């Protein structure tokens, strides 16, 4: 899935308020501490990159993302970090370049996640940390699960196929298949809120990530059905959203 046309500010409004607090929990789970050199694969607008730079120093951190707009935003926000336009399946770094390679909320968007994990292992030194996390779509615990449910229950939309990393054990299995040792898995939970339903609806109607194109082509009556079902699910506000991600870590072979 492409984020090429998504503005960094819109992504922050939609997902950044969840990915930022999640990043700290994820870095703790991965055991990130100085001195180390770390890579953020699929850095987006820089939620995890910022945490890594804060712990290790900007010059010890690199990031890649295929969306040029996101890369430009991270370069502007975090001077000194080596941020490049690149895909997870073809990382522009030498073997054993990093002590830790992390990927937050990316695996489920990859065209070839197993190739990406092979690349992630390749650029991580032997014994270094490899880790990834993805929202738990299996149990509807993503931040936008209520919106997706409202669409699913209100209009004729094909169900979203199960994506890599979004169910228990998937990330751990992929790390193991990539050769990682001492693989462990956990759940990471964050809580965020919005003042009222209109604010909640506005960010979901942006059509970003897993919500992209969900409202495309709907007439006014269908849109209202989705909106009313969403209101039934989340209420008028204040709206508190609890979101949980699967996270897995291992050591590179």
Question: What would you note in describing this structure?
Answer:
This protein is an alpha/beta fold and 253 residues long. It has a domain at 8-140 and 161-191 and 244-251: 3-Layer(aba) Sandwich (Rossmann fold), CATH 3.40.50. 37% of the residues lie in helices and 23% in strands. The chain has a 7-stranded mixed sheet. The model has no long low-confidence stretch (mean pLDDT 95). InterPro entries: Methyltransf_11, Methyltransf_Superfamily, SAM-dependent_MTases_sf. It holds the Pfam family Methyltransf_11. Residues 39-131 form the Methyltransferase type domain.
Mean pLDDT: 95
Helix tally equals: 8
CATH superfamily of one domain: Vaccinia Virus protein VP39
Beta content comes to 15-25%
Report strand order across the widest sheet. Answer: 3-2-1-4-5-7-6
Rg to the nearest angstrom?
18 Å
Protein name: Class I SAM-dependent methyltransferase
InterPro entries: Methyltransf_11, Methyltransf_Superfamily, SAM-dependent_MTases_sf
Keywords: Methyltransferase, Transferase
Pfam families: Methyltransf_11
